[in-house]
Specification:
The chain contains four helices and no strands. The chain has 87 residues and is mainly alpha-helical. The longest helix has 22 residues.
């Protein structure tokens, strides 16, 4: 259960200058929580896709296009795969 609320537990330990990086991490945790469910309703799948897109956008903003290599390109294909193969 730690992972489920880890963002709340860890937040007070994050220095102010790193909050924007922490926020990007929280977005990633949120879509991974949705992905790890046994069944993902359509509205939650759409939310997951928005979170994936927002996480990617934030990584590019924070680290620049040359440095932003989120190791989660696979995440951009979740919604398509869910429609193709089911949840």
């Amino acid at each position: 259960m730690f992972d489920y609320r880890s963002d709340v537990i860890i937040l007070p330990m994050i220095p102010d200058h790193l909050i924007v990086h922490f926020a990007a991490w929280v977005l990633r945790v949120r879509y991974l929580r949705l992905l790890l469910r046994r069944h993902i309703p359509l509205d939650q799948a759409a939310l997951m896709q928005r979170l994936v897109n927002e996480t990617t956008r934030r990584c590019v903003e924070l680290y620049g296009l040359d440095m932003a290599t989120p190791k989660s390109h696979f995440a951009s294909h979740y919604l398509t795969c869910m429609f193709d193969f089911g949840t």
